[in-house]
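Open question from group meeting: does this chain pack into something compact, or does most of it stay loose? Before anyone orders reagents, we agreed to write out a predicted structure and look at it together. Recording both the input and the output here so the notebook holds the full record.
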Amino acid sequence: MNMNSKDIKTIVFFDGQCGLCSKEIRFFKKLDAKKRIEWVDVNEDVELLHALGITYEQAMRKMHVLDNQGILRRGADAFLALWSELPYFKAITSLIHFSRTSYLLDRAYNGFADWRYRKRSGAQDAATVACALSGQHNLPSRRESTWIRKGLQIEQGRMK
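Structure tokens returned:
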């Protein structure tokens, strides 16, 4: 069966235990009337993270999106991939790309993401944050098998 990019859902990974993140995702879900996006709470589906080569700590540090082309995007680029799937936000995405201001969005997002990461763990420095987060979540070991999910074949972090 031949699948084009519109047949494959964009997958958004988010921290469902973060109040701000959850509120934002609820808003985006309402806009996703065509159900083009699969929403994955990183606290509930760590096996898919591992299959894509994303650690729990990386997922907590920055938002990750697997777009409908099979490209894994992080940070502000992940938001642009998400927004490109949503009504009203498509225009913003086009404007950001056209004006070549994505670097500003990236800088702003990185500052926010670092602050959120420290606040979420209750720590002040990166080493303490990593220890606090790794203690919060008992991750299963990386699976050796191939994942077949939504028509995508994922093997140890690589799209096939």
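Observations to bring back to the group:
Residues 102-121 form the longest helix (20 residues).
The first strand starts at residue 10 and ends at 14.
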